[in-house]
Structure formats: C-alpha cells, structure tokens
Amino acid sequence: MDNSHLPDDEPTWASLSRRDKALAAFGMTGLGLGIITAVLTVLLLGLLAVAVASRHLVEADGIGPLFWGAALLLPCGALAALFTYPLRLGLRLTGIAPRSKNATEAALSATTTFLAVLFAEHFTPGLRVHHPWLPALLATLLVALANLVIRKLERRTPEKDSSTD
C-alpha cells in the first residue's frame, strides 16, 4: 500500500492544480504588495513627521516630492548600507567586547540612517533642503527612538510556551 499521499501531508507545488497554483501566486503577490504598502506607509509617516518638525528647512513643490522621498528612502538606504557594510564586516571580524561591539553596531546603524536620509534629500526631485544635516539628524533620532520603543515592547511581551503548539 502506498502511504505517500496521506490526508495530513502538506501538498507539494507539483501536486497542485493549475487553478491552485494561480491562486497561490495571486495570494503571494497580494501579500508582497501589502508588505510593500505597509513599509512605504511607515516611511511616509516618518518623512512627514520630519518634514513637519523641520518645516522652515524643507521646501517642497507640493505633496508629490514627499511621496518620491518615501519611495526613494529604500534605495537610498541600500546605497548608504554599501558604504557602511565594510565597517560592519570589520566589526564582526574583530574580537572586541560584546558591549563595545553592540554600541559600535548601533552607531553604524545610526550612520546608515543618516546617510540614507541625506541621499534621499539630494535625489528627491522637487525637494529643497537648506541645512540637509538637520532633517537627517532628526530622522536618525526618530529611528533610534522607534528602535528603543520596539525593543522595550519586545521585552514586555511574555514568552509563549512552545509546548502548547
């Protein structure tokens, strides 16, 4: 007797019908678009917070440059990460104390955020910033504050017992 297709088995991609494959592809596309939308919404809210806080330093040709800025933050973050990656790699290869390593990693993360915002300010069409380092510093501090809040919330949530699954 062949027990390869028991009812409790997970179906493989090859065993799915064409309709099931199309539904799965449609669902994964929707999930991906939803995640991208959520990330861009968070970036846009952060950008709006920085723009409102530094309204005398930032001039925009309408609302369009703010959307461009939010969309350009991800590629600018990748570009900034290219500059800080050799330092991160060197940090991982060194044998310094864990506490110093964590502090240096946090400083490199802040530097990456600062550079990403500077790049986004420079590359965003229709956006003029008088002192670009001030909004970049504000955005860096906002991200650091968000990281602290998230870390505190993670510590407050009770750990779930894995034996109940």
Q: What's the layout of helices and strands?
A:
Layout: H1 18-53, E1 58-60, H2 64-93, H3 98-123, E2 127-129, H4 133-156
Antiparallel strand pairs: 1-2
Helix pairs in contact: 1-2, 1-4, 2-3, 3-4
Tell me about the biggest sheet?
Answer: 2 strands, antiparallel
Strand order of the largest sheet: 1-2
Low-confidence segments: none
* Number of helices, where a helix is a run of at least 4 consecutive DSSP H or I residues: 4
Shape, principal axes of CA atoms: extended
Tell how many strands the DSSP assignment holds. 2
Nearest-angstrom radius of gyration? Answer: 22 Å
Strand content: under 5%
Which series of helices and strands comes N to C?
A: HEHHEH
What class would the helix/strand composition place it in?
mainly alpha
Mean pLDDT: 85
Concise summary:
By secondary structure, the protein is mainly alpha-helical. It has four helices and two strands, in the order H-E-H-H-E-H.
Key features?
mainly alpha, 165 residues, two-stranded antiparallel sheet
What does this structure look like?
This protein is mainly α. It is built from four helices and two strands. The chain has a two-stranded antiparallel sheet with strand order 1-2. The mean pLDDT is 85.
